[in-house]
C-alpha cells in the first residue's frame, strides 16, 4: 500500500524540514531483509520487528520514515538510518553509510 502522492508532497522530515520522497523498491526490499534478520534499528535504538510496505526517504538520503498500511510513521525516533548502496538520489548517486546491512559491504 503506497502513500498518497499529495500527502507525500505535504510531509517533511520532522527534524530537518527536508522534503521526503517514496523509497525505491530496492530500498524497501533491503529494509525488510534487515528487519527479518533483526538488524534494523530505529533512531530511538529499538529493533524494528514488523516488515514495511514502503518508506519515505529524506531529501539527503540519510534517513527514512517507515510506512505500514499506507501510513507513514513520522516520529523522529522511529526513523531508520539508511546504508550506502540502498538509497539513491533521483540522479542515481548513492547516499548514506552501510550500517544497517554490514554483510553487504
Topology:
Layout: H1 5-10, E1 20-22, H2 25-36, E2 54-58, E3 63-68, E4 71-72, E5 80-81, E6 87-88, E7 94-95
Write up this protein.
By secondary structure, the chain is of the alpha+beta class. It has two helices and seven strands, in the order H-E-H-E-E-E-E-E-E. 17% of the residues lie in helices and 21% in strands. It starts with a helix and ends in a 10-residue tail after the last strand. 29% of the residues are buried.
Task: Give short descriptive properties of this protein.
105 residues, alpha+beta, two-stranded antiparallel sheet, 17% helix, globular, disordered C terminus
Q: Tell me, what's the shape? A: globular
Mean pLDDT, all residues: 81
Alpha-carbon distance between the termini? 30 Å
The residue ranges in which pLDDT falls below 50 over 5 or more consecutive positions are 84-89, 92-105
Assign a percent range to the helix content.
Answer: 10-25%
In total, the number of strands is 7
Q: Any idea what the radius of gyration is?
A: 12 Å
Q: How is the biggest beta sheet arranged?
A: 5 strands, antiparallel
By secondary-structure content and strand pairing, the structural class works out as alpha+beta
Strand-residue proportion: 15-25%
Separate helix tally: 2
Order of helices and strands: HEHEEEEEE
Brief characterization of the structure:
The protein is built from 2 helices and 7 strands. It has 105 residues and is an alpha+beta fold.
Amino acid at each position: 500500500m503506497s502513500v498518497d502522492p499529495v500527502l507525500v508532497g505535504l510531509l517533511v522530515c520532522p527534524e530537518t524540514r527536508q522534503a521526503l520522497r517514496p523509497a525505491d523498491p530496492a530500498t524497501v526490499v533491503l529494509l525488510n531483509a534487515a528487519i527479518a534478520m533483526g538488524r534494523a534499528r530505529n533512531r530511538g535504538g529499538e529493533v524494528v520487528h514488523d516488515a514495511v510496505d514502503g518508506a519515505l526517504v529524506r531529501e539527503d538520503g540519510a534517513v527514512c520514515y517507515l510506512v505500514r498500511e499506507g501510513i507513514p510513521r513520522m516520529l523522529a525516533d522511529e526513523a531508520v538510518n539508511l546504508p550506502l548502496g540502498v538509497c539513491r538520489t533521483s540522479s542515481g548517486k548513492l547516499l548514506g553509510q552501510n550500517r544497517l546491512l554490514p554483510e553487504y559491504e
